[in-house]
Write a structure and sequence with these properties.
By secondary structure, the protein is α/β, with parallel strands linked by helices. The chain is built from 23 helices and 23 strands. Strands 17, 18, 19, 20, 21, 22 and 23 form a seven-stranded mixed sheet that branches. Strands 7-8-6-9-10-11 form a six-stranded mixed sheet, sandwiched between helices. β3 and β4 form a beta hairpin. The longest helix has 52 residues. The N and C termini lie far apart (76 Å). About 2% of the residues have low confidence.
Length: 655
C-alpha cells in the first residue's frame, strides 16, 4: 500500500513538472518573437524543448510502472483466489466440472484435475456415464476413487464429492471381523535432514501401506494428523496372517532397501466388532506400546483387551528427538513433584546398581523441590549391597519398608518407579495400588513390558536407546544443574550413577552411544569415584567353580545359542547367573546364553544375555519374566520341579 501511494505521488509531481516545462517553453517561444530579446533566447527555447522531451519520458515510465504493477497484483490475486479455492476443494473433497451447450467439458476445477479428472477435459459429458437429467446423487468410480456426483443442468455444472473412504468404511464396518491398523514411521537424521530423500522414502512407504490396506478390503484414513502416523481400516480375516507373520512390517521396511537401517516401523492393530472410533483408539494405544518397546514390531489389541506382541527383530528405537522427550518429561515431572506432599522412590526386587544409582540420582534431582522423600528399597543383590553400605547414615535413614511407607501416605503422595515398568516387580507394589495412576511416574530404559498396558497413558519416560536408567537421570540432572561441574552434586551420588551405567553397559562395552560417554564425563567431572566403582565389578573367587560347572552342563543349539545350569543342590548369589551368562557370551560364535541356577531365598533364576541379533526379552516374557532386548531374566519359586523347568526353557529356546 505504501509503494502504491509513492508511485501515485511521483506521477502527480511528474505531471506538475511536465506542465511547468510546457508553460516555460511556450513563454520563451512567444518572447522570441519580440525583437527586443537578445540572441540567447534561442538557447533557452532549445533547452526547455529537450527538458520537455525528457519529462515526457520519465512521465511515461511512471505511468507504465503503475499499470503493470496493478495488473501484476490483479494476476496474483486471481492466482491466490484459485489457490484458496483449490485448497478448499481438497479439504472438503469436492469439485466441479463445467460443460458448454454441446455438452463438451470446458473447465475442471484444479483439485479435481489433480485427482485424475484432467483427462476428461475437452471430451463429451457422456464419457462420464452419468445422467444429466437426474437431480439425485449418482455413484461414479474413476480409478481408485469413488465419487458421488450431482448434476446442475441449468448451470451446466456437475458437482463431485469424494466418498472413497466413507464407502469403504461402511463396507468394512458391516463385516464381523474388522480391524484398524495404525503405523508410525521414525526416520533417522540421515533422512530427516534431506528433504528430497525424506519425501521419496515417505512416498514409497505410504504407497506400500495404501496398497496393502486396499488389497485386504480396506481404506486409509487420511484424518490422522500425527506426523509420521497413518491409520486404516481393513478386513481382519484377510489381513490377519500378514500382520501376525510380520509380512506387512517387512514390506514397509523393504520399500527403501538402501535406507532400511534408517527406518523404524511401529505398528498397532485392534480388531473386533466394536465401533470404528473405539478400534482406532485401541490401535493407537497399541501403537504407543510398540514405539515404547523399541519399534520394528507389531502390537495387536484383541477384543478381550489383551495385547499380543509380535516381532523379535527390534533392538532399539531411532534416537532422534529423545532429548526432547526427556526435556518434556522433566518439565512435567518436576511440576508434579512440587505439588506432592511426599515422594516415594522404589525400584524392582533384588535391586541392582542401576536401580540404586538411578534412585539416588532422583534424590539429587528433586531434593530442592520436596522435603519429604523416602526410598522403598530394602532388597539388594550382593554387589549393590556393598554400595548401599557405603552411603552415609543420613541417606540410609531415608530407606524405609513398604509397611512404614503406608503410615505416611496421603492423597498428595507421588511415587516414582525406576529401572522397571512392571509395577508387580517393584518393592512397593501394594503401595502403588493405593495411588492413582496420575500420581505414579515411571522412568526406565527397558522396552515396555506386558502387564503395564494399563499404564501406557501414565507419566512415563521409557527410552530404549539409553544405556541405563541412570543415564536418563543424568540427562535430567544436566537439564536441572547445567552441563558444567557443580560441587552441589553429592560425589557419592555421582559414584552411584556411574556404577549403574557401567553395570548395564558391561563396563562401557555394550549398549553405548555418544550420550553415554557424555553422561560418564559429567559424573567424573562431578567427583565420581572411578576406582571404587571398578572394585564393585571384581567377581568373587567362588565364581570360578560355578563357571566350571556351567561349562560342563552346556547345551548348544542352532545360531550360536547355548543353555546351561548349575545343579539344584548348589545355591548361588543373585548375580552369579548374570556373571556366568556374560562370561559365556564373550566366547566366539555365541549369540545368546541362558544360565539357570537356584539362588538364595529359595528361588530359581534364569539369566539371559545376547548380542544385538537375538531378542532374549521375547523369550523371557514367554517364560513369565522380562527385561531388555539383550539382557533379561526370569525367576520361579524353588518349590517347582527343577528338571521340568529345564525342559520348559529348552523347549522355548528350540522354538
Amino acid at each position: 500500500m505504501k509503494g502504491k501511494k509513492n508511485t501515485i505521488l511521483l506521477i502527480v509531481l511528474a505531471t506538475i513538472s511536465t506542465l511547468s516545462i510546457i508553460l516555460l517553453l511556450i513563454f520563451n517561444v512567444l518572447a522570441s518573437i519580440d525583437k527586443n530579446y537578445d540572441d540567447n533566447q534561442a538557447f533557452f527555447i532549445v533547452f526547455y524543448a529537450i527538458l520537455f522531451v525528457f519529462s515526457l519520458f520519465i512521465y511515461g515510465i511512471l505511468i507504465y510502472h503503475f499499470y503493470i504493477n496493478r495488473n501484476k497484483k490483479i494476476v496474483d490475486l486471481v492466482k491466490s483466489i484459485n489457490s484458496i479455492g483449490s485448497t478448499q476443494e481438497e479439504i472438503f473433497e469436492v469439485g466441479s466440472v463445467f460443460y458448454d451447450d454441446e455438452q463438451y467439458i470446458t473447465f475442471i476445477t484444479p483439485w479435481l484435475q489433480k485427482e485424475g479428472l484432467n483427462s476428461y477435459l475437452g471430451k463429451k459429458v457422456s464419457t462420464l456415464k452419468i445422467n444429466l437429467n437426474s437431480n439425485k446423487p449418482q455413484k461414479l468410480n474413476i480409478g481408485y476413487n469413488k465419487w458421488e456426483v450431482t448434476s446442475a443442468k441449468r448451470s451446466k455444472a456437475i458437482l463431485f464429492k469424494d466418498v472413497t473412504f466413507v464407502s469403504s468404511l461402511i463396507q468394512t464396518i458391516e463385516k464381523k471381523q474388522k480391524a484398524v491398523i495404525s503405523i508410525h514411521t521414525s526416520l533417522t537424521k540421515k533422512i530427516n535432514f534431506n528433504d528430497s530423500i525424506k519425501a521419496d522414502a515417505t512416498l514409497k512407504i505410504n504407497q506400500v501401506i495404501r496398497n496393502w490396506v486396499t488389497k485386504h478390503g480396506g481404506i486409509l484414513n487420511s484424518s490422522i494428523s500425527n506426523e509420521g502416523t497413518i491409520s486404516g481400516i481393513f478386513d481382519w480375516v484377510k489381513g490377519q496372517r500378514d500382520v501376525e507373520s510380520e509380512t506387512i512390517l517387512e514390506s514397509i521396511k523393504k520399500a527403501n532397501p538402501r535406507l532400511v537401517k534408517d527406518i523404524t516401523i511401529s505398528i498397532g492393530v485392534a480388531y473386533g466388532d466394536g465401533d470404528y472410533a473405539d478400534l482406532l483408539e485401541s490401535s493407537l494405544k497399541s501403537l504407543e506400546v510398540s514405539k515404547s518397546r523399541g519399534g520394528d514390531q507389531t502390537i495387536i489389541m484383541k477384543p478381550n483387551g489383551f495385547m499380543e506382541y509380535v516381532g523379535n527383530s527390534s533392538t532399539q528405537a531411532v534416537s532422534d528427538g529423545n532429548i526432547m522427550n526427556i526435556r518434556q518429561f522433566y518439565t512435567e515431572f518436576i511440576s508434579d513433584i512440587k505439588q506432592a506432599r511426599e515422594v516415594f522412590i522404589s525400584s524392582h526386587k533384588m535391586a541392582d546398581l542401576d536401580a540404586l544409582g538411578s534412585s539416588l540420582g532422583l534424590l539429587e534431582l528433586i531434593k530442592d523441590y520436596s522435603n519429604h522423600i523416602y526410598f522403598i528399597i530394602d532388597d539388594f543383590d550382593k554387589t549393590t549391597l556393598k554400595l548401599f553400605r557405603t552411603l552415609p547414615k543420613t541417606k540410609r535413614d531415608l530407606f524405609i519398608t513398604e509397611r512404614e511407607a503406608f503410615r505416611n501416605i496421603s492423597n498428595r503422595s507421588h511415587m516414582v518407579i525406576t529401572d522397571t515398568s512392571i509395577l508387580e516387580y517393584t518393592q512397593a507394589y501394594k503401595l502403588s495400588k493405593n495411588l492413582k495412576p496420575k500420581n505414579i511416574s515411571i522412568i526406565d530404559h527397558h522396552r515396555l513390558s506386558k502387564g503395564t498396558d494399563n499404564y501406557v497413558e501414565s507419566k512415563m519416560l521409557i527410552d530404549t536407546t539409553s544405556s541405563s536408567t541412570s543415564e536418563l537421570i543424568v540427562e535430567m540432572l544436566k537439564l536441572d544443574h547445567g552441563t558444567e561441574v557443580h560441587s552441589s552434586i553429592d560425589p557419592m551420588i555421582s559414584t552411584s550413577l556411574l556404577a549403574g551405567i557401567k553395570l548395564d553397559t558391561k563396563q562401557l562395552s555394550k549398549n553405548i552411544q555418544s550420550s553415554t560417554f557424555d553422561a560418564v564425563s559429567f559424573l567424573i567431572n562431578n567427583d565420581a569415584n572411578i576406582n571404587f566403582v571398578d572394585s564393585l565389578f571384581k567377581p568373587p573367587q567362588s565364581l570360578i567353580l560355578f563357571e566350571k560347572e556351567a561349562l560342563t552342563n552346556l547345551q548348544r543349539f542352532n545360531n550360536g545359542i547355548v543353555f546351561t545350569f548349575i545343579k539344584e543342590t548348589t545355591k548361588v548369589n543373585e548375580e552369579v547367573t548374570s556373571m556366568i551368562a556374560d562370561k559365556i557370551l564373550e566366547y566366539e560364535g555365541i549369540s545368546a546364553a541362558f544360565v539357570l541356577a537356584k539362588i538364595k531365598g529359595n528361588k530359581f533364576k534364569l539369566s539371559a544375555r545376547s548380542h544385538n541379533n537375538y531378542n532374549v526379552q521375547s523369550l523371557a516374557e514367554k517364560l513369565g519374566g522380562g527385561g531388555h532386548f539383550n539382557s533379561s531374566a526370569c525367576t520361579w519359586p524353588g518349590t517347582i520341579n527343577y528338571d521340568n523347568l529345564k525342559k520348559k526353557i529348552v523347549s522355548e529356546i528350540t522354538k
